[in-house]
Each structure stands twice: as C-alpha cells, then as structure tokens.
Amino acid sequence: MKGFEFFEPTTLAEASQLFAQEHTQLLAGGTDLVIGMKALTEAPQSVISLQKIPGLAGVTTEADGSISVGAMTKVREVELSADVQKHHTALAEGAAEIGSIQIRNLATIGGNIAHASPAADTVAGLLVADAQVDIASADGERSVSIDELFTGPGQTVLTPGEIIIRFRLPSPASGSHYIKHKIREVMDLAFIGVAAAVNLDNGTITDARIGLAAVAPTPIRATEAENLLRGNELTSELLQQAGEAAAAASSPISDLRCSAEHRREMVDVLTRRTLQGAVARA
Amino acid sequence: MSEYTVVGQTVARVDAVEKVTGAAQYGADVHPAGMLYGKIVRSKHAHANILSIDTSEAEKLPGVRAIITQDDVPSGRRVFATDKVLYLGEPLAAVAATDPDIAEEAAELIKIEYEVLPVVQDVMEAIKVSAPRLQSDAAKDGPNRREISAQIRKLTRDKENDHSDEISKLEAALEEYPDEVYYNISAESHSEAGDVEKGFAESDVVVEDTYVIPRVHQTYMEPHVSVASADSSGKVTVWASTQGPFAIRSGIAGTLGIPLTQINVIGTTMGGGFGGRFGVIITHVPAVLLSQKTGRPVRVQMTREEEFIDGRPAPGCVIKIKTGATNDGQILAREALAFWDSGSVSGASIGSTIRVRGVYKIPNLKVDAYGVHTNKSGTAAYRAPGAPQAIFAGESQLDEIAERIGMDPVKFRLMNMREEGDPVPAGANEPKVGYKETLEAVADAAGWWDREAGENQGWGVAVGDWTNGCGPGGVYVSVHEDGSARIFHGSMDITGTDTMISQITAEILTIPYESVTIRRGDTDSAPYSTGSGGSVVTFTMGNTAKLAAEDAHRRILELASERLNTNVDNLELKDGAVHVVSADPPKSISLGELAAYSLSTTGGPIVGKGSFARQASTPALAAQIAKVEVDPDTGRTRVLKLVASQDVGYAINPMAVEGQIEGGTVQGYAWAMMEEMQYGENGNINPGFVDYRVPTSADLPTVESVIVEVPAPNGPYGAKGVGEPPITPTLATMANAVKDAIGVRVTELPIKPEKVVEALKSNGHGT
Q: Residue B761 and residue B632: Cα distance in Å, rounded?
C-alpha cells in the first residue's frame, strides 16, 4: 500500500471540498477501497472518511410508505431491515449475497453502488425499486434515477466532489425477487444477477421492472421484456417471451468466469425465475 | 472392547489451546530485532528472453539494503532466472529493505528488458511439433512408435541376419503414427502387465474416454514464509514454515554450499501444508542470501497472489483411458495414456498414472505417462500426489462400463476387487486390506442399497487407494520425578500428529494422556526426522515413539527390579506404577519414585530412545458416496449427502481421523466442482480467492465419515497413514453422481454450471 493523507471531515460540505481535489478517494466501509489500495490498483493521495459525518446511515420509512436508505447504511442493515425485506425483497436478497456477514457488517450500500461494478449485488434490487439517488456536493443536492447513475464499469455521472448520500425507494412493488448466478453458495461474485419486481391487479401485471447485473458495461433494465409483461397475466408463454427479451437486451462479455453465451442463457433462465418469484410474492 | 486406554480414544489435541487462543507462533510471527523485509522480483511475462536487468534505480531508493540476482549465488545453482524466463512470476532478483512497502517499490524500480517469446499453456498443444520448445528440442515417441522403434533397434542390432525387409516394413509402419512424436516432454513413465490388445479383443464392452483435470493449488491458509539470519561466523538460522525442516536444511546446504551443521532450521507452526510446503528455493534460499549480504535477519513472505503465480501446485493432466470388460462384469483390460502438465520443470507425479489400475483384478494393463513442459510454474505434491487425477479417470470410466453392462456400480466394483494374495498388475501381491469392507461400509452407511432419487437427483460412488510413505525418525522419551513423561523429537506437527505420538507414549508408559508433554526441537537439537508428508507421520513417528517408550519401559522395569529387589520377569508396569505380579500384600512403586531414584543410580535417568526408518506399508482404501441434485437450467449442483469410509488400519485418535477424512473429502469435492487455476496467454489469470474458489461450509453438508479398521501389520497398533487417501476418490464420486443425475457425463473438471448446461444441451436438453 502506498502512503496517503487521511481526512475525517464532520460535514458533507467539508468532505465534498476535499473530494473535489484530484487523486482522492472516499472511504465508506472500505471493503473495496482497502483491497484496491493493497493491490495498488488504487493509489489515492488522500483518503476521505465519511464515517464521522452524522446522518448518512439508517433505513427510514416515510409516512407515504417510501423508504429512504442512507448511503452509509451497512449492507447487513439493509439485508435485515424488516421494511426493506417486506417492500423491496429483491434489494434485501441482493444485500444478503454480498461477501460474508463480516464483510456486510463493514460494507455500505453507498459504497457498493458508488464503486459502480456492473456485478454489484444491490444494484439490480435498486433498479427494480426505481430508486432515486440523492447526491450532495458543496453546491447543494441533486437527485438522479439509479438507471441514469452508471456510465460504464467503475464510471458514474458523479462529478468531482459529489457524494452519494441516500437512496429513496418510492412506491413499493407488491413483489420482487433477486437471484444471483454463481458457483459457490456464499462469498462469490455474481456471474450475473437478475431482479424482477411486479405490481399485480387481480392477476394482471400492472407494472413490471427487470434489473440485470453483470451482463452489460453498466447494470441495465430489460425494458423490452417489461413492456411485454405490462397489462398481461403471467402465462408460461409470456414468461418465455420475457426471458428471451431480457436475454436479447443483455450484451455480456466472455471472461474467466464464464462465456457470454452462458451469461445470456442465464439471463433468460433467471428472468423467468425471478418473475415467477416476484408474482408469487405479490 | 479395546484393550487400550489412551490410544483409540478421542483426546484434545496437544496444541488445541495455543491454536484457539492465537498463541501459536506461525512463520510471520517471527520478528528478530533489526529484521529486513525481502521481496522477490518476478517476471512479468510467461516466456521471454531476458536482455538486461538494471538495478541501479532501485539501489538508490532510501531503505534498500540489498539487491541480489543470480550473480549473488556463490554456488552457481539456479535460484534466479538469468537469460530466459519460462513462466509469469519466475524469480529474477530479490530485494531487502527496511520496510515492506520500500521493498515492493524497489522491486518495481528494477528495470528488466524482455524479448517476449511465444507461449504454450495447454499440454495437448505443447506436445505438438508446432509448439515452442521450452527446455530442449528433445522429442519422445508415443506408445505405438516406441514399440515399433524398439523392434527396429533390436533387428538392427542383430548383425548376423539380414532383417532389412522387415526393418523397412517397420519404418513404414512408423509413418502411421506421425502425431505420436511428442515435444516438450519433461519425463516419461511406462508400465505393462499382460497383453491389453488380447484383453480388449476378449471383452464384450470396450469404453474409451478422455478426462481433463485442472491444475489446482494446495491453498494452505498460511502463504510461504521464512526468516533467515546469518551471523558473522557464517552460522545460518532459518525460521521456516515447512513440513520438513531437515529437508530444508539439506536443501539450503546443497543449493548454497553451506556446511550442513552450519544451518539451523526452526520449524514454525504450520498454517497447512498438504504437500506444498517442502520447497527450498521458494522463499528460504532467497532469505538466506539476503541475510548473508546484509548481515541482518530477513523475512521473505509470499502474498496470496505470489502463491498462485509462483507456488508449486498440483499438476493438471489429460488422461486418455480405455477399459474392456465382459458382459458378466469382469474387467479384462485397461490402457491409459496420460499427459501431465509439469510446467517449467520436470516431475509432476507422472508415476501415479499407474493408479488407474485401482484395486481391481485387471489382468491386462498398460500405462504410458508423459510430463509435459508448459509456461507455468513447476508443480509439487498435493495430498496423494497424482492419485486424484488418475483415479478420477479410472473410476469415472468404471461407471460407464457398469452402465453399459447394466450392473450396479458398487456390485461391479466389489466383484472386481483384489483380495489378499491376488497379483497386483505391475506390482507385488496384495496384502490383507479392507477393500470390500470399506466399500460395503460406505454403501451401508449411505443407504445405497435402497437409495431413492428424485427428479434431477443422482448418486455416485468411487473408491481410491493410497499407501502411506515411511521415513527415518528419532524420538527421546524422558520420565520425570513427578511421574510425567516428556517427548522430544523433530517432526512437524501436521493435523494432530504430536497428539498421536503423545497418546502412544502414554499408552506404553500406562500414564494418563495429560501426563505426557511433547517438545519439538530444531535441526540443531532434535534427532533427524522425515518430513511430515506422504501420510508418513503416524506410521513412522508412531513406530518411533513406541520404540522410545518401550525403551523407557525397559529402564523403568530395570530400576524397579533394583528397588523392589525382584527379577524383572515378576514386574508389571500398570497405571503409572510398577507392581510385583501376584504379590500379597500388593507391592508397587510409582513412576515418579522410580524417576527420582534413577537420578542417583549408575544407569542414570529414565531416557528412552526410539529410532526407526523402514518397514513395509500397507495400502489404504477410501470409498465415498455422494447424492446430488443438479439444476438442469442453471447447471448448479447441490450436494445432498456425502459419505466417506476409509480403512485406516487402526484409529489412534478417532476424532482426528474423522477430521482427516472430512478434510480430504472436501478438498476432493472442491477439485471436482470449483477449484481450477486458469491460464491465459500470459500466465495465471485467477491469482486470488475471488476467482479461485475454495468451498465454504455453506457448499456441502457435513461429511459423514465411517472408520474401517483392518490392521496394518507394521503400523503402530495397526495404524495406517490417514491423511492422503480421502481426497483420492472424491473427484470421481462427484462426477459419477452428476452423471447419474443428468444422464450425461462431464469429463472435464471442474464441473462448473456452464459445463453442465453444455453437456445437457449436447444431450438434447432445452432444445
């Protein structure tokens, strides 16, 4: 690990000013950053901890039923939150897939998203929750939709000094489900991840959202498949069409974990399964 | 009931408290004053000529105390590459600095000019004429060409008769096998018994397959580490995390030309070894060289990434295998041709290919094996080296045969298993081994005979054989005035062997296990001991400790005879005291009293000596059954049941034995289902635990272990080595279970989801 300066600001404004400088990194849980620094793939001159800034952690349910998840909320807390489990099951299931319990007690949901790995386990759940990402900087706050946050692997729309502070999860879907394709039961990286969320009215799908991780340079929504589902009942034929449409929406790569072809096939399989799961929970 | 009171019992390990509390001192805990940090400078290319090595910039970095290359190896023995590198990560130089970060920075500052050469990573490519030659231009003939060439040589030698017609015919026949000239061959091994062609001709069913087994790493928890300290007199002390301190001592002496007794190797508590912790050059020699140059202690410690790119893992291999049997289930012939990926050096357990013969009466057997150079690091032992690979091929194909002839896989194996006195193909006659007992035990325990399988579920069985090694060892046992005993020896504790040695000593001296303590010496103080590998310790050190305790026992009776004024024939050592047999009233003297008395005798204190080197070992069998469920859409396999039995001879510490059975089985499971070192154009591409997957406890159920005891004539209390056998059948057990579940065989390990999906597609699933 290379030497670095360490800052522990107590306000967002201070943190944002520091983070606006070049060669800086934010420290949230540190579960990605510290590994990167040890491997020398990250060599920041300054590390800015967010841990002393009050008000960035915690899951809050608002009067209208929407849920706010602070960026510094530990992944383990997201996983175990009764409200997240009930209204955004796919997000809780995704959180439960990250690393080990020890890692989840350190890692934050903000870090998991800001790291912008296309394979992040909480991202598909946030996509199907239609999450809004609140961002703070010295100039104030702004908000972007989660599906507009990512621009490439490790890349986001965040500008220097901007810090993710919370995720707002509006209008809960009535059922959602996340499945990760992996080899090892726990502590594996996603070969792919699929989340589906549906709203049902008397058996008819009034809204459907499908989020795909690790099948494109950024996490994506399978909008074609979603459109097929809206206004229809989930028949086996429709399920098959949705799976195929989601697979067609993906543009995976081949790497040491598996081939692009396998990833695309698994998008098909897991889209069908997560949809069935989401409908069963709705 | 057992006639013994301490052996045969589960007792707490002697090192339990220090391990659990963290008090145990591992290699990285050693930190002599003034210690420097070493770092190996490694090749960034898998195959390249080295044009120049420029250390000048690195030398200027404050805190750098020494930089060494091959020029600094006085003996000239190869420690660092000079003109050519053969794999990514091959050592080129080493740095010692006051701080690990400085050492790392200095390593990066050393400028190395490479001329990159073509790379070959796949054994089947490496043997081709088109492959780059890694070590030499030598070409080897394959089995058919070898046979024909031998005939030609024989006829040519016969000068008295004219064989020119015959010779030209044979030369023409050679042309039929152009693909049988193999290149990049590092070693070869051939064995034959009977006539395989005849055996195949007489068979009703002949099956031929090719099995591919990946290179896997031993993944011990503790990476290689050594701390070396050379003093001004030339004396070298090395704290080494190793399975064999005496082997490291002679290795350093041989490599660097230092007199043997000028080197003291202190073995530190081992964070796992599995056969991979015997290497001398890997960290120990660079540490010694750096210490000699700086005059300060130096630690060289590998990172996990370095372990993957420059460890000495288990070789992968490709095995073409053919088996013939009759319709009523008699195996008549088996032939195997194996190519072992030995990496940049020779070796790679190619001799273990013979294990395709299994424990079966195969009258006709032919085995040809080749070690093949590739642009990878060399390999070393990993738990029953070579056996899991060969047995995977052999036991997988047995199931294919059983299926063709419609026979139950367990019955088919039982029917063909060798019995006492049967000839072993290309070996000596079979001793008494519990082959059938072990297989029957696992079948009964697993519920094989009335097994049920739901949709996409399957059952698999396989057996694997292995024979423990044997080596020299020495043990002293002293008895103290408080009646306790102390063992002194030099073998590294591996998987509880110190506990086993203590149990045997307590048993012979008839004292409680708690009254025995054990102390390991370094190579300066302890008697010679063989390395703790090859399942050798229980057999060797168990026998040695028994001899030492028996020697002490003799002295005890001698002392008691003086003290109690009676002939030794009238004396018996029991419950920690010597009793006069049938004395009325009872007459006895305690061990403590005898030890105190001994201090003022001419004969002196009670010190038993045991020294042992060679005795014939007896094979052991591991038999396993798995039940799995495969998800046909995702290709993921879940283990529902895994039962492992083993003929251990005699279980000196049953819980420790079960631990070995479970550990070996889990490592075999991992090799079958997820572990593989992957190689790209420029070397290993998964050098870490993110993409090199070792299983967690969430991946499989508790392994149910079943202990079978058919005593080994020369083992202590009949015990055999137990560490290695349990890994040998698991690869095939898992593959056979997956085959049973999905109806199609995956012949290339690991059985990853993608391969299962592909196999099912080839079989018509999903179309």
A: 10
Among partner residues B305, B680, B696, which is closest to A185 by beta-carbon distance?
Answer: B696
- Chain-centroid distance of CA A253 in Å reads 20
Name which of B101, B674, B690 is nearest A1 (Cβ-Cβ): B101
**B724 in catalytic set:** yes
* B504 touches B717 (CB < 8 A): yes
Cα B135 to Cα B127: distance, rounded to the nearest angstrom: 13
User: Residues B582-616: pLDDT tens digits?
Assistant: 888 999 999 999 999 999 999 999 999 999 999 99
Q: Is residue B1 scored above 50 in pLDDT?
A: no
* Selection from B648, B640, B483, B638 nearest residue B552 by Cα: B483
Over chain B, what is the mean pLDDT? Answer: 96
Element (H, E) at B23: none
Secondary-structure class of domain A5-49 per CATH? alpha beta
Which CATH code is given to the segment(s) A177-281?
A: 3.30.390.50
Task: Decide if B107 touches A, using CB distance below 8 A.
Answer: no
Q: A137 to chain B, minimum CA–CA distance in Å?
A: 34
Q: Of A1, A187, A265, which has the smallest distance from its Cβ to B696's Cβ?
A: A187
Of chain B, the percentage scoring pLDDT greater than 70 comes to 99
Catalytic residue among B724, B748, B754, B758: B724
Q: In this complex, do A259 and B752 lie within 8 Å of one another by their Cβ atoms?
A: no
**pLDDT over 60 at A50, yes or no:** yes
Strand duo B637-647 + B619-630: pairing: antiparallel
**Same-fold call for B31-117+224-301 versus B430-466+619-762:** no
Q: What is the DSSP letter of B355?
A: G
Q: How far apart are CA B338 and CA B324, in angstroms?
A: 18
Q: What is the pLDDT of residues B377-397, one digit of tens each?
A: 999 999 999 999 999 999 999
* Residue B691 touches partner A, C-beta closer than 8 Å: yes
Please answer yes or no on whether A259 and B699 come within 8 Å at the CB atom: no
